[in-house]
Amino acid sequence: MAAQISEPESQPPISSCRKKKSKEASFVEDESSHIDGSLMLQWMNTKTALRTLSRRCFECQRLSQRRMKVLKKLKVLFPFRHIWPTRI
């Protein structure tokens, strides 16, 4: 009985999931541009998050200032004694 040797099927080369910056770029140049792009994306996300946080803080500050103005107007309109329990 002759053993049949099967030849491995030729598979297409595995391609990268991302495109190269240029066809002449070396592996190191390609990887450095990929890392730079990742760092830039992280920085942009951080910047957006900080901007959103600062806007929320200023909005809360504006709302509290408006509430204080309303409370001051109410105190002027309704001058009554507070019925809060006193400290012991």
Q: Any overview of this molecule?
A:
This protein has 88 residues and is an all-alpha fold. The chain has a domain at 37-79. Helices cover 58% and strands 0% of the residues. The chain has one helix at residues 27-77. The model has no long low-confidence stretch (mean pLDDT 77).
Describe how the helices and strands are arranged:
Elements: H1 27-77
How many helices?
1
Secondary-structure element pattern, one letter each? H
Question: What structural class is derived from the secondary structure elements?
Answer: mainly alpha
The residue-averaged pLDDT reads 77
Give a quick precis of the structure.
With 88 residues, this protein is mostly helical.
Write a concise keyword list for the protein shown above.
mainly alpha, 0% strand
